[in-house]
Design a protein that fits this description.
The structure holds two protein chains of two kinds.
Chain A lengths: L1 H6 L5 H5 L4 H21 L16 H19 L3 H7 L24 H29 L10 H18 L5 H12 L8 H19 L15 H6 L3 H29 L12 H32 L13 H35 L6 H14 L18 H10 L1 H15 L8 H24 L1 H7 L3 H31 L5 H27 L14 H32 L58
Helix pairs in contact in A: 3-4, 4-9, 6-7, 6-8, 6-9, 6-21, 7-9, 8-11, 8-12, 9-11, 11-12, 12-13, 12-14, 13-14, 13-16, 13-17, 13-19, 14-16, 17-19, 17-20, 19-20, 20-21
Chain B lengths: L17 H24 L10 H34 L18 H29 L20 E8 L2 E6 L5 E3 L2 E4 L3 E8 L4 E5 L4 E5 L5 E6 L4 E7 L11 E7 L1 H14 L4 H5 L28
Parallel strand pairs in B: 1-5, 4-10
Antiparallel strand pairs in B: 1-2, 2-3, 5-8, 6-7, 6-9, 9-10
Helix pairs in contact in B: 1-2, 2-3
Classes of the chains: A mainly alpha, B alpha+beta.
Chain lengths: 631, 303
């Protein structure tokens, strides 16, 4: 049946545009939006049903409009086709996987490799929108008093930057790279739930569109944390924030469940737990956090949505609610969330170091213990975000201890990484440079975290630019740097084309230097008394702020170098990539570039982990007795 | 399989004890830099010595920086040595390194050292916190306070969009938008809010306490000599959050009395209005937030 599908004559473009694809999705999405919008107005509530009355604002319409829009979008993409076909008695199939040509990237496709590449471009788009917001923030902060943007616009920019980055980049590595690589690395032909896999991606894109359109509803003033009494009195743009993060939460939960199910059930013969690539362990520990943390986010945002539309007062103290409830629930999600961002970075560093140091991964079990330990401990630290909040203070010593304990499993990752490159034969390739930069950045991020975990020191640094610089060191320095390591390492495999190495090195060095030149001084700025998210600051801090702004612009320029390299190499030069450009022993590099649709002709059988550098030739993947073909 | 790596490990020609070299270099570097950092850099870290609590934080930062320095030294020495010594040239044949997979002694040593440092820092931080509260907000039932907190000057800090006002129950309920504190005095700051969450940050005093509606968040601070300090809101509270700042003053006792008399006179006209309960047309928060004159925690409003 595969062959029949591939042999079909090419249909003309106009014909292919009609059907279930992105275009239809957008059309039905816009239609659904208006249905929801006018439907809610037809309910006869011209004003918001809200404890805090707001004039000329109908939150219910915004919620129903976007829900209608998302449903229309998914229907247009064809997510209902399969359930309806099954209800009508058709047999199970994975027809979406057999799509071919470039149009499959713009439609529902259940090939995990297509979804991975969709994720890469989709998340990349929103990453650049978030980055542009950062440039606008730094433009505003060039001067202590002069206003480039009105205060409300500035807060919206800050909120968009933070929410976009935290929401979209949560799947920044698991989305593109885990979706693409997990089936390959465990010797499977697909994820456990291919349609859910596609759903996570398209939900995320719908969420991104919702957050971007907050500007049509006045934006939102709360930053990415969305703290409650302020969120309750905010204008309708806040509803976009709530919907965005709730959809991201649903997407994260499904993504995590899919990863766990795939890794638990679909490993090829011989791939025991101690032979799993360390990247898979990182994905697994992240996925567990996603599945357990994201539902808390969905719950707290549902309560917020009800506070804003249905006259509940969960978070309004004057009416019997509690703003601590929001803070607690948000950080029960929020602190595992930051490790959801950090852990894939650990995994990529540990996965790449053996390749470029030509040595086996040192202390495999310790590395696994480190990631699982971080995953476990991250549940017991959330109240360090509330050290000075006035919530019951008796637990603060416990949270000091638990927060500092996290540095022990994090230290395992450092030790394993350092001992892996020790006495190796290190090649300074671009992915390796990004991994080495991770050590530097995460070291600064971790050590500045020591100050924040210690309540007496936290009294000054809490809510200041110090904590902002700290989490940029851990998230941008930890996640975004390893994201680029992964891009440079795996993109030749994913696309079949090489990236220009000279431009890549220029990108690395400018990014590394200006990243540190941006966030290093901000550690000092925070200690000197500049709170986060302010539109004005003490005039004595102008020099440092200007320095940071100029560095940030250079950092933005460095991203443009990357973008240019990407477009130049993939669209114009198109130099074919070798099958194994890094001489890696990992299984995905034993396959052709790009990887064929069904991954393996025969399911491989594993006899070792992929880190046997210096331990003999790469073992051939002995074909098992299963025939080739589709599942 | 064109670029299949050569699989022969490098012959063990190198008998140098690289590990010993790194450890010795690290110990020497740490022994030099740590005291220098502790003595010269540590005391420069904010918030400074304007209050006992600020001084405690400076000492705390000094100790932590002394712990951080050797870690930075280890990383610097390790990567400087490792990357210079063990890298290959461009275009050099890709050979495998020695297949070292584990060393239980190194693991054990690493775990013991990191565990010891973490436990010390956690214990030290807890001690510093419990000593006098470190200027942080502790909620309505503080667990850490200075020795003479019973006789502390009570000041209520009321956050609202977008300013702080300060209420002095011992001055007959005087309320002002200026924060004046007498020198060499124990002060109990009762931080609360009328609308959304704010955070009262007196930067140079080393004080930070979130202002929550309906919650009395107490922070203790012991002032020293006269000084000027900055007050900022450190929790995003809406449109004019960035403009929610002011100067505060620590002044001598006599100057404080003069200021209090002058402020009492200034606000005499609205004083009766401020003291009325809110259901009789008074200020909306007058009674629910008034701390009992002469000390003691103000009542926490239900809900």
């Amino acid at each position: 049946m595969t062959d029949v599908a591939l042999a079909m004559p090419r249909t003309p473009l106009w014909r292919r545009l009609i059907g279930f694809n992105l275009l239809t999705g957008i059309v039905l999405g816009v239609g659904g939006w208006y249905v929801g919008w006018f439907g809610a107005h037809a309910l006869g509530t011209s004003n918001s049903l809200d404890f805090i009355p707001k004039i000329d604002q109908n939150d219910l319409s915004v919620y129903l409009a976007y829900l209608g829009g998302v449903i229309g979008f998914l229907v247009g993409l064809g997510f209902l086709n399969y359930p309806i076909a099954r209800l009508r008695g058709y047999p199970p199939s994975l027809r979406e996987k057999e799509a071919h040509g470039w149009t499959r990237y713009f439609s529902l496709c259940t090939d995990h490799k297509v979804v991975g590449i969709q994720y890469l471009w989709g998340i990349g788009l929103f990453f650049f929108i978030g980055g542009l917001n950062a440039m606008l923030i730094r433009t505003e902060l060039l001067s202590p008093n002069h206003q480039v943007f009105p205060a409300g616009t500035y807060l919206t920019i800050v909120g968009m930057h933070g929410t976009m980055m935290m929401g979209m980049m949560t799947s920044g590595i698991l989305g593109p790279f885990a979706n693409y690589l997990v089936p390959l690395m465990i010797g499977a032909r697909r994820m456990a739930f291919p349609r859910i896999e596609a759903l996570t991606f398209w939900l995320l894109m719908a969420a991104g569109a919702i957050l971007t359109t907050t500007i049509f509803f006045g934006g939102f003033p709360t930053g990415w944390t969305g703290y409650a009494p302020l969120a309750d009195q905010s204008n309708a743009g806040m509803d976009n924030y709530v919907l965005f993060f709730a959809l991201v939460g649903i997407s994260m939960t499904l993504l995590g469940l899919n990863m766990i199910a795939t890794i638990l059930t679909m490993r090829a013969p011989g791939l025991t737990w101690s032979r799993l690539p360390i990247f898979i362990w990182g994905v697994l520990s992240t996925a567990v956090l996603m599945v357990l943390a994201a539902p808390v986010l969905i719950a707290v945002l549902s309560m917020e949505a009800m506070d804003r539309t249905a006259q509940t007062t969960f978070f309004i103290a004057q009416a019997g609610g509690s703003n601590y409830l929001y803070q607690n629930l948000f950080w029960v999600f929020g602190h595992p969330e930051v490790y959801i961002l950090a852990l894939p970075g650990f995994a990529i560093v540990l996965e790449l170091l053996p390749v470029f140091a030509r040595k086996p991964l040192w202390g495999y079990r310790l590395a696994v213990a480190g990631m699982l330990g971080v995953s476990l401990l991250s549940w017991f630290v959330w109240q360090h975000h509330l050290f000075v909040s006035g919530i019951n203070g008796d637990l603060r010593p416990f949270y000091i201890l638990s927060t500092e304990l996290i540095s022990i499993p994090t230290g395992f990752t450092f030790l394993c990484g350092m001992m892996t490159i020790w006495r190796g034969r290190i090649r300074f390739t671009v992915p390796m440079l990004f991994c080495l930069a991770w050590f530097f950045n995460f070291l600064i991020g971790g050590l500045s975290g020591v100050y924040l975990s210690d309540t007496p020191s936290d009294v000054t640094t809490h809510g200041s630019f110090f904590s902002m610089a700290h989490f940029h060191y851990t998230i941008m320095g930890g996640l975004v740097f390893t994201f680029f390591a992964a891009v440079y390492y795996w993109l030749p495999k994913m696309t079949g084309w090489q990236l220009n190495e000279r431009l890549a090195k220029i990108h690395f060095w400018t990014m590394f230097i200006f990243f540190n030149s941006t966030f290093g001084p901000l550690l000092a700025v925070g200690f000197l008394g500049q709170p986060r998210r302010v539109v004005t600051y003490a005039s004595g801090l102008q020099f440092l702020n200007d320095w940071v702004s100029v560095s940030a612009f250079c950092l933005g320029f460095s991203m443009l170098i990357f973008l240019f390299n990407l477009v130049w190499s993939l669209a114009f030069v198109k130099k074919p990539a070798e099958m194994n450009p890094w001489a890696s022993r990992s299984i995905e590099f034993q396959l052709p570039s790009p990887v064929p649709v069904h991954n393996f002709d025969r399911i491989p059988v594993f006899s070792s982990d992929p880190y046997g550098y210096g331990e003999g030739p790469v073992p051939t993947l002995v074909p098992a007795g299963q025939p080739a073909g589709r599942e | 399989m064109a670029s299949q790596p050569t699989t022969a490990p490098t012959p063990p020609t190198d008998s140098t004890n690289h590990g010993l070299r790194v450890v010795v270099a690290w110990l020497v570097l740490s022994a030099i830099t740590t005291p220098l950092v502790a003595i010269y850099v540590g005391p420069l870290i904010p918030p400074g010595n304007a209050t006992v609590q600020g001084q405690g934080q400076v000492f705390d930062n000094q100790v932590m920086t002394s712990f951080v320095t050797p870690i930075l030294c280890l990383m610097a020495v390790f990567f400087a040595y490792g990357l210079v010594k063990f890298h290959t040239r461009r275009n050099e044949a890709i050979l495998d390194g020695p297949p070292l997979r584990n060393d239980a002694r190194v693991q054990l040593l690493w775990i013991v050292i990191t565990m010891a440092m973490v436990l010390f820092l956690a214990g030290f931080g807890t001690y510093e916190l419990l000593k006098d509260g470190s200027g942080g907000g502790q909620g309505p039932n503080p667990i850490a306070y200075p020795a003479h907190h019973q006789s502390a000057l009570q000041v209520q800090v009321i956050g609202q969009q977008w300013q702080f006002t300060y209420r002095y129950p011992s001055l007959g309920g005087l309320e002002s938008n200026q924060l004046y504190l007498p020198a060499n005095t124990d002060v109990a700051l009762h931080v609360t809010s009328l609308d959304v969450i704010h955070s009262f940050w007196a930067v140079e005093l080393g004080v930070k306490a979130d202002a929550n509606p309906g919650i009395d968040n107490v922070a203790y601070v012991q002032t020293k000599g006269p000084t000027v300090f900055h007050v900022r809101c450190a929790e995003l509270c809406g449109l004019w959050h960035g403009y929610m700042y002011n100067n505060g003053y620590v002044v001598s006792a006599s100057q404080f009395q003069t200021w209090a008399a002058q402020q009492t006179k200034l606000y005499a006209a609205i004083k009766p209005f401020m003291d009325k309960p809110d259901n009789q047309g008074g200020a909306p928060y007058a009674h629910s937030y008034l701390p009992a004159p002469g000390g003691g925690a103000p009542p926490v409003r239900a809900g």
